[in-house]
Amino acid sequence: MPLSDHEQRMLDQIESALYAEDPKFASSVRGGNLRGPSARRRLQGVALFVVGLAMLVSGVAIKATMIGSFPILSVIGFIVMFGGVVFAITGPRGPVPVDKAASSSGASRSKRNKNTGGSFTSRMEDRFRRRFDE
């Protein structure tokens, strides 16, 4: 169900107040850069995990890698394993690539959105993004 005119005006006022009060936060929320990890990133994370596991096992097995009775190579291997898992499950932090043709003008975008229909949530997301682009 679409918003009434009064509700739409209230939402616009809230959005403009948020952007005026904290533009850095508003731009980070607007960015929408929450993406999952790609297959390549997962593979790299798994490779880091395996390298870390090999370092951990070899640090315990080889006495030359110990400083006193502290297995330094094993600790480094564990850190590499942990980093590999974190790398594999997180997505990239960079901005989401934007299609240059789609963001060229607001008028053509609004005309295109009216013609395509789409789901309610996608229309609302497009409307929200359009307001911040203006």
From TrEMBL:
Transmembrane regions: 45-64, 70-90
Biased composition regions of type Basic and acidic residues, renumbered to the chain: 123-134
InterPro entries per the UniProt record, alphabetical: DUF3040
Signal peptide: none
Region entry Disordered, spans: 92-134
Keyword Nuclease: no
UniProt keyword list: Membrane, Transmembrane, Transmembrane helix
Protein name from the UniProt record: DUF3040 domain-containing protein
